[in-house]
Write a structure and sequence with these properties.
The structure holds two protein chains of two kinds. By secondary structure, chain A is of the alpha/beta class. Helix content of chain A is 49%, strand content 16%. Chain A has twelve helices and ten strands. In chain A, helix 2 runs parallel beside helix 3, helix 4 packs parallel to helix 9 and helix 7 packs parallel to helix 8. In chain B, helix 4 runs antiparallel to helix 5 and helix 14 runs antiparallel to helix 16. Chain B is rod-shaped, with a radius of gyration of 74 Å. Chain B is an alpha+beta fold. In chain B, a hairpin with a 5-residue loop joins strand 6 and strand 7. Classes of the chains: A alpha/beta, B alpha+beta. At the A-B interface, helix 1 of A face helix 9 and helix 11 of B.
Chain lengths: 297, 583
């Protein structure tokens, strides 16, 4: 394996690629692609630690490209670098692409450097784990424990906020517990190992949301968090996405099919996280950032 | 409702009945009628009195015949009949009146009978009284010479007869009776010729003796017949009846007053209720009016808000697009500057080395060896830098940056062109430039849409450029949304005729349903979900085009895309105000 981390930049503006390559070529192995299709070609042949993509490109959106990256190479850390924040792109970046960071143009070199460095660390740390995981999945499948779909009974959902409103966003979701605020919900969750998913009304979450979430992740890293509701502003949305505290973001009311598909996916995610948590090798030693990012898988 | 209707009907019936009843009551107490009755009573009493007077007169020979009496008798009956008729005419039947009338009628009949008797007897009496003195005188003359006593007796008899007949003294009757007795047989003593005369005289005297009492009895009977009393009784009964009636009428008056009071109260009640209802109604109407006004106001407000939000939505879309377009070059230009700065830092060592060489060379005794060493360092440094391609990098990054700044500059100038602040005055405008500018601004909305431009030679047109750009943008937005940013948009321009140009926007989206075609330019008409579109974009475009004296039509077949045709005049009418309604 190459000593230097490998980074792929994707943007339809060649000058952006030139600029980025000039900036980072001394520290990383840089590849560039000026279209999503070229990026996919490169991905076919190479393993990258990090993929940084623009969102608006002809032919394919950035989050769609990153979703494919995620599917093909889960250990590759995904970053969006986009000129404009829109709510759909944000939600998609979390829900579909599971991005590590959502960055805006114009960017600052120091911030971008830091993000790339962290991303490379994570990627390199995650790779063996994720490979193990995939192998474990394959083994499980082979031994007939295939899929092992999470039993609906031991996957309880907790609602934070008005559960009627939450139910409108996620039709069909059954809330085993419901609390008005995050500050109340966290201690309750600690005592309820059966809770696997938390659905949080972002409009009512309050200021301490990120602190509460950080605390929650420290103690219950297996819990999958779904943020629900229209976002107040892009700043809040961006900080939520970039804290990697949310695993899913629902900004509009879903249809029943969409809701059920989402809940099923979330159930599998929780299942994986629980397995990770039960694995003592993973429990310690891994940096917080990395652990959080792993949750996006 | 039904009960109140019944009540009203009942009240009306009662009122009508009361009116008839009162009318009837008024008939019976009609003063004219009463006056007629009074006259008849008076007449009856008068007639009665005159009958009595005439009877007395005729008894004492003051009137010579019975014509007047007969007339009066008839009149008395007539009067009675008249009274009866008057009572009957009004249907006045009470027991008292009936009894009194019967009594009066019987006395009238009685009086008539008595009067007839009186008349016949009185005739005999009067006849004797009238003829007796003449016969007596003649007889006296006959017997005066031969029988002076008899003559004297005859004279005395005449006196007694007249005195008795007129005064009715008992002495005179005695004298007369005595004289008649003495005169009996005198006919035998007188000459043959005077014999009948004596018998006649005696006969007269006897008649007076016989008839005077009978006649007087009848006369007294006549005078005593109680017609007056009975008439007065009838009159009293009538008066009693009238009094009763007027009492009744008084009662009716009270009744009427009561009735009127009740009616008044009912009217007041109804008035109050009506007032209450009216006030309630008024209040309701006011409330409704206020509600409607509120609703209207709210509607107006929300319409304004919608127009505003449509503007903001377009603006937001534009800003999103523009921000993306600007942020990209801004991003790399900014980054390039940092990289160039770092690269220049590396050049510092090279320049420093050169500086040292320069210093060494300009020394009084230049140390060749030192210079050579320094030169070697510089060359080594240069080679290192060259290997890192720093110079090429700087050059190319600066070139890119310049390009990026140019991009930004162009975008800003496009934006300025697009939303050029222009007044109501029309200015000359290059439609193609407007289309290009708008397409650039709409780049984000268009996404991956393929745009084919087929421009033909066009004159500049007089218009409000920013408004026309808005028309283009709204149509392009609509096309982009219809094709979900993945279709094809063809823009054709042509001179329709000498005075007009035409711009056609053709997309290959799903087209517009027949039912929606008529409504597509209606404000707030949208096929998008609630909250996704205001439905104002095309209606605003339509208004703008119309205000320019042009026309905007849509041609579409479902499944075959839509075609928007904008027809605009080349020149505007002089002084035409292009102040387009802001929505």
């Amino acid at each position: 394996m190459d000593a230097r981390a490998r980074i792929l930049f994707v943007d339809d503006e060649i000058r952006v690629l030139n600029s980025l390559r000039a900036t980072f070529r001394h520290d990383y192995e840089i590849s560039v692609a000026d279209s999503p299709s070229k990026a996919l070609d490169l991905l076919q042949q190479n393993q990258f630690d990090v993929v940084v993509s623009d969102e608006r490109m002809p032919g394919m959106r950035g989050h769609q490209l990153l979703r494919q990256v995620r599917e093909r190479s889960p250990a590759t850390v995904r970053v969006l670098l986009t000129g404009y924040v829109d709510a759909d792109a944000l939600a998609n970046s979390i829900n579909e692409a599971g991005v590590y960071r959502y960055l805006q143009k114009p960017w600052s070199i120091s911030d971008l450097s830091q993000v790339l460095q962290d991303a490379c660390d994570i990627s390199q740390a995650a790779e063996p784990i994720l490979v193990d995981q995939i192998q474990a999945d394959v083994m499980a499948k082979r031994e007939g424990r295939a899929d092992n779909p999470p039993n609906q009974l031991d996957l309880s959902i907790m609602g934070v906020g008005d559960h009627v409103r939450l139910g409108q966003y996620l039709p069909g979701a059954h809330f085993a517990l419901s609390e008005r605020s995050m500050a109340r919900a966290v201690p309750v969750v600690m005592r309820r190992p059966d809770i696997g998913v938390m659905v949080i009304d972002l409009e009512e979450a309050g200021v301490s949301l990120s602190q509460c979430l950080a605390m929650l992740h420290e103690k219950r890293s297996d819990i999958v968090v779904i943020g629900v509701g229209a976002l107040k502003n892009h700043h809040q949305a961006l900080s939520l996405v970039n804290s990697n505290d949310l695993q899913k973001l629902v900004t509009s009311m879903l249809s029943r099919e969409q809701s059920e598909a989402l809940l099923k996916e979330v159930g599998q995610q929780h299942h994986r996280l629980r397995r990770q948590r039960e694995n003592p090798e993973l429990a310690g030693g891994v940096r917080g950032l990395f652990r959080r990012w792993l949750r996006l898988h | 409702m039904k009960i109140s209707h019944l009540l009203i009907a009942l009240v009306l019936l009662l009122a009508a009945g009361s009116i008839f009843y009162i009318r009837y009551q008024e008939q019976t107490t009609d003063p004219v009628w009463r006056g007629q009755m009074e006259v008849q009573f008076e007449s009856l009493l008068m007639t009665d009195a005159r009958i009595n007077e005439q009877a007395l007169r005729s008894r004492y020979s003051l009137s010579s015949n019975y014509d007047e009496l007969a007339q009066l008798s008839q009149r008395l009956k007539g009067d009675l009949e008249r009274i009866d008729q008057l009572l009957m005419a009004r249907g006045v039947v009470t027991p008292q009146l009936e009894t009194a009338t019967k009594a009066l009628r019987s006395s009238v009949v009685n009086k008539e009978d008595v009067l007839e008797n009186f008349k016949s007897h009185n005739s005999l009496l009067r006849n004797s009284i009238r003829h007796a003195p003449a016969v007596g005188d003649e007889l006296t003359a006959v017997v005066a010479i031969e029988q002076p006593d008899s003559a004297q007796r005859i004279e005395s008899t005449v006196n007694a007869l007249l005195s008795y007949a007129l005064l009715g003294e008992a002495e005179d009757a005695e004298q007369l009776r005595t004289n008649v007795a003495q005169l009996n047989g005198l006919e035998q003593q007188v000459v043959e010729d005077s014999r009948s005369m004596v018998l006649e005289f005696i006969n007269h005297a006897n008649t007076v003796l016989r008839e005077k009492q009978t006649t007087d009895a009848y006369l007294s009977s006549l005078l005593q017949v109680p017609t007056v009393d009975r008439a007065i009784a009838l009159k009293d009964a009538f008066s009693g009846y009238i009094a009763q009636q007027s009492r009744g009428q008084n009662n009716i008056h009270y009744l009427i007053i009561g009735y009127l009071s009740v009616l008044g109260l009912a009217l007041i009640y109804l008035g109050l209720r009506l007032r209450g209802t009216y006030q309630l109604l008024d209040q309701k109407v006011q409330e409704r009016t206020a509600e409607i006004e509120n609703a209207y106001h709210e509607l107006q407000q929300s319409q304004e808000q919608l127009i505003q939000s449509e503007k903001m939505a377009s603006l937001g879309q534009m800003v999103a697009g523009v921000a993306h377009e600007i942020n990209t070059p801004l991003g790399y230009v900014n980054n390039n500057m940092d990289v160039v700065r770092l690269d220049l830092g590396e050049l510092d060592s090279l320049l420093g080395g050169l500086g040292e060489i320069s210093a060494a060379m300009s020394a009084k005794n230049p140390d060749r060896q030192q210079i050579v060493n320094l030169l070697r360092e510089v060359v080594k440094e240069y080679r290192r830098i060259h290997k890192r391609e720093v110079f090429d990098e700087i050059r190319s990054l600066l070139k890119d940056s310049q390009y990026g700044l140019g991009e930004i500059g162009e975008l800003v100038s496009n934006l300025r062109d697009f939303s050029r602040v222009d007044g109501a005055e029309a200015v000359r405008f290059d439609v193609h430039k407007g289309l290009d500018t708008t397409l650039k601004v709409c780049k984000t909305v268009l996404g991956d849409m393929e745009v084919v431009k087929d421009y033909s030679e066009l004159p500049q047109i007089e218009c409000s450029p920013s408004k026309i750009n808005q028309v283009f943008m709204n149509i392009i937005n609509n096309a982009a949304q219809a094709t979900a940013g993945k279709g094809k948009l063809i823009i054709l321009t042509s001179s329709a005729d000498s005075g007009h140009i035409e711009i056609v926007f053709k997309d290959n989206g799903p087209g517009i349903e027949q039912a929606h075609l008529n409504k597509i330019f209606d404000p707030f008409f949208t096929t998008k979900d609630i909250g996704e579109g205001t439905g104002l974009g095309l209606s605003i475009a339509y208004k703008i085009v119309r205000s320019h004296g042009g026309n905007l039509v849509v041609v579409s077949e479902p499944g075959h895309g839509a075609e928007f045709r904008v027809l605009l005049p080349v020149t505007q009418r002089v002084g035409a105000a292009l102040k387009v309604v802001e929505g």
